[in-house]
Amino acid sequence: MRKGERKDYQILRVGEDVFADPRTGEEHDRVIIEADDWCNVLPLTTDGRVVLIKQFRFGSQEISLELPGGVVDEGETPDEAVKRELEEETGYRAGRVVKLGVYRSNPAHFTNRVHSFVALECESVNDGHPDGSEDVAVELVRPRDLVRLVGEERVTHALMIASIGLAAVHGYLAVGEMRARNVRRAARR
After folding, report:
1. Is the Cα torsion angle 7, 11, 16, 19 positive or negative in sign?
2. How much of the chain is in helix, strand and coil states, percent to nearest 5?
3. What are the average pLDDT values for consecutive 10-residue runs of the chain, which has 189 residues?
4. CA-to-CA separations, 96 to 17, 110, 189, in angstroms, rounded
5. Structural domains of the chain, ranges and CATH numbers in brackets
6. CB contact set of 75 (below 8 Å; sequence gap of 6+)
7. What gap in Å lies between CA 118 and CA 134, rounded to an integer?
8. Nearest-angstrom CA–CA distance, 117 and 98
9. What one-character DSSP code corresponds to residue 47?
10. How far is Cα 98 from Cα 173, in angstroms, rounded to an integer?
11. First to last CA, the chain
């Protein structure tokens, strides 16, 4: 591999590298996007609702319904970042945070990972304090309604859908034939 120059756009760095095909040895140019790791969290309140945020997204030119999350800052662990993002964006604080897993947003081009969490026993502690460029509104939904919102294409952010899927796999959301008691059981873990 020959690493090319990077153009720095503050939140990511873009360049073109040359890679040798592992089968044939033939060289190919590939666009590589270096980005810091990201994190997101599915917050469950003490009364069992999910805390979501609505915010305008410049790429889609739409208001997006999402889980709280953001960049893992330098010197910060993913669980520290997700706790910070939760409180900054929503004003909620978690009683405890459980890691759901790590995945790649698009391994064809991006170098970073997404760290996914569930936050349990969340309580509102302030009005939140999003970054200056963020216009965030909080929306509370029941867990079964979150799954419906994905099915109705009202939640369309792929990284959020992946984390919602991880939460369901780990028993934090009732999906299909799962029952609410499974959600309560998972919350006691």
Report:
1. positive
2. 25, 40, 40
3. 89 93 94 96 96 94 96 97 96 97 96 98 90 84 93 96 95 66 60
4. 42, 30, 11
5. 1-35 (no CATH), 36-188 (3.90.79.10)
6. none
7. 22
8. 6
9. T
10. 14
11. 45
